[in-house]
């Protein structure tokens, strides 16, 4: 399994790039969001990858973060969602947006992806609703790991900034953990944190917790 590659971008297309790794060219398909985050042709890029192997096909998919790669794996586990649809969802919403939409049960947000209709969007939300809390909790760890990561340099040294972490990912992760410790179910806590983070993207942990608790409080 090819889990990550680092090399020079030889060319870019609408849905893929060719990355040269010590003379071997890898054709890597990516979401619009990931393609936009990659450096120009001739510079070094590092992407996490997932290899699809079928009887008549081998394709390599690239992701700028581990969270995006994990969501791709989960999305393609849903019946009727292939790699193309998964990349469309991730391109439209990003991994943080996918977490929020599924935690809130907002299937209409998923239909923002090209080629994804209401039926498939509803199935995605229904099948993956129990996965959103774990992915939101994973967000802080992923963001911190990427912040410390330095790209491997092939041939001449080329500076490349680390992929931008998901906005507020660490705060959401800590708030989710705190609510779980208070006895709230993972799905209820994830939904409340997702709503609170959506209303205040730059909120710190304590602010998110207070806002989420208000949302979870019984309505009199």
TrEMBL record:
Coiled coil: none annotated. Pfam families: HHH_5, RuvA_C, RuvA_N. Residues 167-220 are annotated as: Domain III. GO terms for molecular function: ATP binding; four-way junction DNA binding; four-way junction helicase activity; hydrolase activity. Residues 1-62 form the DNA helicase Holliday junction RuvA type domain. SUPFAM superfamilies: DNA helicase RuvA subunit, C-terminal domain, Nucleic acid-binding proteins, RuvA domain 2-like. Residues 65-142 are annotated as: Domain II. Homotetramer. Forms an RuvA(8)-RuvB(12)-Holliday junction (HJ) complex. HJ DNA is sandwiched between 2 RuvA tetramers; dsDNA enters through RuvA and exits via RuvB. An RuvB hexamer assembles on each DNA strand where it exits the tetramer. Each RuvB hexamer is contacted by two RuvA subunits (via domain III) on 2 adjacent RuvB subunits; this complex drives branch migration. In the full resolvosome a probable DNA-RuvA(4)-RuvB(12)-RuvC(2) complex forms which resolves the HJ. Has three domains with a flexible linker between the domains II and III and assumes an 'L' shape. Domain III is highly mobile and contacts RuvB. This is Holliday junction branch migration complex subunit RuvA. It comes from Sulfitobacter undariae.
